[in-house]
Design goal:
The chain is of the alpha+beta class. The chain contains 19 helices and 18 strands. It has 2 domains: 272 residues, 2-Layer Sandwich (Chloramphenicol Acetyltransferase); 302 residues, Choline/Carnitine o-acyltransferase, domain 2 (Chloramphenicol Acetyltransferase), CATH 3.30.559. Helices cover 41% and strands 14% of the residues. The strands form 4 sheets. An 8-stranded mixed beta sheet has the order 11-7-6-8-9-10-1-16, with helices on both faces. A 6-stranded mixed beta sheet has the order 12-18-17-15-13-14. The longest helix is centred in the N-terminal third of the chain and has 24 residues.
Length: 637
């Protein structure tokens, strides 16, 4: 499990330095006063995130630039880096300050990371930040099947929640080392709150009156559904079915203003509208009920029938943004940390707001839920429950009505711009790289490098996330997949004058280089978050930002035309997300034993990119790399 998911790319320095001095309204770690010993004992046993040596980061930064910047630019950058790290220079002073911060905090990075990567980010969370997750098509095609599956899903989530509440969730390990479990305590009963310049996150899961309800959305209308009986027991699947049927029958007509579409706006616009919306007490109470709920369940109508890859790609669009205002984009509350989406035609999946957690807790929860829904039901249970769902009401002023129409318009433009392709590479999966004793993730990443080179004749800055969960409150760092070794391999691969033995040797070196960088990153020794920390200190201390951060090479290093992530799961699913730059690709993949699920995205308005063509080129690269290994006997170790 090497490339663990987080895809937000950060460019620091756009805001004024003073903005970083204000208190941060961030998602807070689980409160030690409200949780018992097992969790605390585990967390306290985890090491703190280290601060890498300055010289090491500077050397590795220059190495990372080699495949993506021109020779003359690199020479200039080397001079800046030498100046930065010399004795008594800016780098040394900032390094000492960062080491001091590390000694006084649980994790020197995590608060900054949530702030800069998410809460200060002002583009819409839709497409640009929040991922979608596509499950295999479920075996139902009507409203009754949808309701039954939804009831089982709710019960499955609550079963998982019970493990979180009771602290019986098994501790995860990577490479034999225990991982931080804090993110599991952040995904339920939490929500992002729009602000005028910076957002915040609320989490009610450990409050004295923790929520007992979920939010259900049907025909763009919101309902509160209590999922606990008056005696504290969970509603049964049969009881939930009755409740969901009531919701669907109560919202047959879509005659309400689609308030949910407001959450698709850019954060500054939504922040202003939000302030107007909650001035009215009815609106404020309705919004609060959504924010406090354990999670949101979105019941979508059936889509026109298609098959194969087209259905998978369209399902990804539904999970990612809902398809636009005419479809399901308003049947969501995108600020909610966790939304499960169930279509009447068997289309299922989830969308999650990224600030509180990375992908692994979400995938672990979904794996559990899918397995739970497959259990055989034993008999019928009493269907009477103590309360019925309550519809949430909103008072819409002419001003908010205008904001809703504007949000619809902008969402439709974004939906039309995103090109999303979900493809299943069926020729092989993890089995082939393992046969040659290669990391499957590294093998796929080298194939992505080869595919990009074949289309554009150069390498580009490539982002793959590495988990820092071996450290307390750890989030992610960057695996830079474009290396000197991968650059040499992709330049040689299609050269007919080169021998296969040389190509295989270069392939092995490229795979090994990726494994080395991955191991370095998960050990807290990668370059990107360290450089971010040094720059953040310069901004907070209101000193002149050192020239290495205003250098053209630094901009190129952060312009990730390939933003990628491996999200492995037990379930045969795939995550999806949008590109992080206008001329880039978002690539997420789930390698199974004998096939690989890919989700590739690009923007239609960019004439340089083509998601379908890139996906096809990746397939070709994987096949050609396997052929090379098969035709070169010495490659088999």
């Amino acid at each position: 499990m090497w490339g663990i998911w987080s895809r937000t790319v950060v460019k620091v320095g756009m805001a004024k330095p003073c903005s970083f001095v204000k208190p941060c309204h961030l998602v807070k770690p689980v409160s030690a006063t409200r949780i018992s010993g097992r969790y605390l004992t585990h967390q306290k046993g985890l090491p703190s995130l280290p601060v890498p040596p300055l010289q090491q980061t500077c050397e590795r930064y220059i190495a990372a630039l080699e495949p993506i910047v021109e020779t003359e630019e690199l020479k200039y950058t080397k001079k800046l880096v030498d100046e930065f790290q010399k004795a008594g220079g800016d780098g040394e002073r900032l390094q000492r300050a960062l080491e001091k911060r590390a000694s006084n905090t649980e994790n020197w990075l995590s608060d900054w990371w949530v702030q800069v990567a998410y809460l200060d980010y002002r583009l819409p969370v839709v497409v640009h930040s929040s991922p979608g997750l596509v499950l295999p098509r479920m075996n139902f095609t009507d409203k009754q099947g949808q309701i039954r599956f939804a009831a089982k899903l709710i019960a499955g989530v609550l079963d998982f929640k019970m493990m979180i509440d009771n602290e019986t969730l098994p501790v995860e390990f990577m490479g034999g080392k225990p991982l931080c479990m804090n993110q599991y305590y952040q995904v339920l009963s939490s929500c992002r709150i729009p602000g005028l310049k910076r957002d915040s996150i609320v989490n009610h899961s450990r409050s004295s009156s923790s929520p007992k309800h979920i939010t259900v959305v049907h025909n763009c209308q919101f309902f509160v559904l209590d999922v606990y009986n008056s005696d504290g027991t969970l509603l049964s699947v049969d009881q939930l079915c009755v409740q969901l049927e009531h919701i669907c029958n109560s919202s047959q007509q879509n005659n309400s203003e689609p308030v949910g579409i407001l959450t698709t706006s850019d954060r500054d616009t939504w922040g202003r509208t939000y302030q107007s919306l909650i001035k009215d007490k009815i609106n404020k109470d309705s919004v609060s009920a959504i924010q406090r709920s354990i999670f949101t369940l979105c019941l979508d109508g059936a889509m026109p029938q298609v098959s194969g890859d087209v259905h998978r790609s369209r399902s990804a669009v539904q999970m990612l943004h809902g398809g636009g205002s005419q479809w399901n984009s308003a049947n969501r509350w995108f600020d909610k940390t966790l939304q499960f989406i169930i279509g009447e035609d068997g289309t299922c999946g989830a969308n999650y707001e990224h600030a509180p957690a990375e992908g692994p807790p979400i995938v672990a929860l979904i794996d559990h839920v899918v397995e739970y829904t497959r259990r055989i039901e034993l008999g019928k249970t009493p269907v009477k429950s103590s309360s019925m769902p309550q519809k949430l009401h909103f008072k819409i002023t002419p001003e908010i009505k205008r904001d809703i129409e504007e949000a619809k318009h902008k969402m439709d433009i974004l939906a039309q711009d995103l090109d999303m392709r979900v493809v299943v590479f069926e020729e092989f999966g993890k089995n082939v790289p393992k046969t040659y004793k290669m990391s499957p993730d590294a093998f796929i990443q080298v194939a992505l490098q080869l595919a990009f080179y074949r289309m554009y004749q150069h390498s580009c800055a490539t982002y793959e996330s590495a988990s820092l969960r071996m450290f307390r409150l750890g989030r992610t760092d960057t695996i830079r997949s474009a290396s000197r070794a991968s650059g040499e391999f992709v330049k040689v691969f299609d050269n007919p004058s080169k021998q296969n033995t040389e190509k295989v040797e270069l392939l092995e070196k490229a795979v090994q280089a990726h494994r080395w960088y991955t191991n370095m990153a998960i050990s807290g020794q990668a370059i990107d978050r360290h450089l971010l920390g040094l720059k953040m200190l310069a901004l907070e201390q209101q000193i002149t930002v050192p020239p290495i951060f205003t250098d053209k090479s630094y901009s190129k290093a952060l312009h990730y035309r390939l933003s990628t992530s491996q999200v492995p799961s037990k379930t045969d699913c795939v995550m999806c997300f949008g590109p992080v730059v206008t001329n880039g690709y978002g690539v997420c993949y789930n390698p199974m034993d004998d096939h690989i699920n890919f989700a590739v995205s690009s923007f239609n308005t960019c004439k340089e990119t083509d998601a379908a063509a890139f996906a096809q080129t990746v397939k070709g690269a994987l096949l050609d790399m396997r052929t090379l290994l098969e035709e070169t006997p010495k490659a088999r170790l």
